[in-house]
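[Discussion] Sanity-checking designs against the backbone

I'm trying to build intuition for which residues belong where. Below is a structure token string of 443 positions. I'd appreciate it if someone posts a full sequence so I can compare it with mine line by line.
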């Protein structure tokens, strides 16, 4: 009897934690207290029921509410769509998973090699091709839209000139280049654009009318403004030849259609989806990779992918044992993966963010200067009113936030800095990855 009561209480707690109000509290904390988001939309599908919980704003001064039809960039979740597309084409005999990628390139373009084993379509989808994360000739004219001017000519130039450092299939190495190349090859095989092929084979069959690369007029009107790491407005990203790696925009309602279909094992793409989640290779401790989709394996398995662009973060996943699916969409470039994982599995804790304190401007001024970590590596500390920034040589400038009068932390990376010395600080101590690195003031 005691065991039964305990089970009932546990179930009651679980249902309460997953209620719309409890989810809304999580989102409100992330936006208002932690200041790690501008707006968040969560979609939850479970036992045939769907609900959407939203909090925050589409942009500063924008009174239009966020909802399940608000449009976000979903970045690398596009890779999951590319994996389903590959599975569908393989099932129909149009390609084979172990076809050499070379087979679908034009004459005169050669895939990089090492040894006798060629890079296959399966290798590209499972991030085991040996190709780097990004091509070395990706040199954007506009760093705020880094993929926009990287086209077919640049991709072919890279492939012809690159040498693999290890044999294909040897190990898991996440590659935007590999996934983007896969989308390009599938489109070439079908004789149409990647977006047209994806619409025909995946989006339209699932009724996903709000998932596109090129925004419709209606989607443009519902697009949430993207925000950077400092919650400042940023521009949208456009992908050309590497579209299969991260070009899609979508909504919570549309993403729940996809995840429900994957979790239920039903619908027009059921077999392709089973293949995408079933063709597994190791990708890390308790982590596997299928065709574009990752899996946390074990008793509480989760099939998932996340995504990020310059102004957005996204998470999509489902639990095969329960059929529960969760999508999290944010219009800021700060991860919200922990929210999605927590809603699928409460044993996965939400991230606890450092709390900020207010430091007088006169105190902040004592820390402004340049501090040398190593020859050629200088941390430059600057101030704008009550805000302080730190920039390492060769890296972007990021804001640091006070946790005490002398100690500050970054939100974009797990690192802290402490200023030492009376009056004008004479030394800075960097704390990162368990190390303490001193830097003397040089200016």
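Best answer:
Here's mine. Compare freely.
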């Amino acid at each position: 009897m005691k065991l039964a009561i305990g089970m009932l209480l546990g179930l009651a707690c679980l249902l309460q934690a997953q209620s719309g109000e409890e989810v809304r509290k999580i989102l409100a904390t992330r936006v208002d207290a932690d200041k790690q988001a501008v707006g968040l939309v969560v979609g939850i599908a479970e036992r045939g029921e769907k609900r959407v919980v939203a909090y925050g704003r589409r942009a500063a001064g924008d009174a239009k509410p966020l909802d399940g039809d608000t449009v976000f960039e979903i970045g690398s979740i596009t890779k999951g769509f590319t994996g389903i597309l590959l599975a569908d084409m393989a099932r129909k005999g149009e390609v084979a998973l172990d076809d050499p990628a070379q087979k679908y390139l034009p004459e005169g373009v050669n895939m990089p090699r090492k040894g006798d084993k060629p890079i296959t379509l399966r290798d590209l989808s499972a991030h085991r091709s040996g190709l780097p994360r990004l091509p070395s000739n990706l040199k954007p004219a506009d760093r705020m839209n880094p993929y926009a001017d990287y086209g077919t000519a640049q991709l072919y130039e890279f492939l012809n000139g690159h040498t693999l450092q290890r044999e294909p299939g040897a190990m898991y190495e996440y590659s935007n280049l590999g996934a983007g190349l896969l989308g390009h090859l599938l489109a070439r095989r079908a004789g149409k654009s990647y977006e047209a092929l994806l619409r025909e084979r995946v989006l339209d069959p699932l009724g996903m009318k709000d998932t596109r690369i090129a925004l419709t007029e209606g989607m443009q009107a519902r697009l949430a403004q993207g925000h950077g790491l400092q919650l400042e407005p940023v521009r949208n990203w456009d992908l050309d030849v590497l579209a299969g790696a991260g070009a899609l925009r979508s909504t919570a309602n549309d993403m729940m259609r996809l995840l429900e279909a994957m979790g239920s094992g039903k619908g027009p793409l059921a077999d392709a989806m089973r293949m995408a989640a079933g063709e597994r290779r190791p990708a890390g401790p308790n982590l596997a990779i299928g065709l574009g989709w990752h899996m946390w394996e074990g008793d509480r398995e989760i099939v998932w992918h996340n995504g990020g662009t310059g102004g957005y973060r996204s998470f999509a996943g489902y639990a095969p044992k329960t059929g529960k699916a969760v999508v999290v969409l944010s219009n800021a470039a700060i991860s919200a993966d922990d929210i999605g994982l927590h809603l699928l599995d409460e044993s996965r804790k939400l991230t606890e963010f450092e709390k900020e304190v207010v430091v007088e401007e006169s105190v902040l001024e004592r820390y402004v200067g340049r501090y040398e970590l190593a020859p050629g590596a200088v941390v430059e500390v600057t101030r704008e009113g009550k805000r302080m920034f730190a920039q390492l040589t060769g890296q972007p400038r990021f804001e640091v936030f006070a946790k005490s009068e002398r100690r500050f932390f970054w939100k974009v990376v797990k690192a802290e800095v402490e200023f030492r010395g009376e009056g004008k600080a004479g030394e800075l101590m960097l704390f990162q990855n368990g190390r303490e690195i001193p830097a003397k003031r040089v200016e």
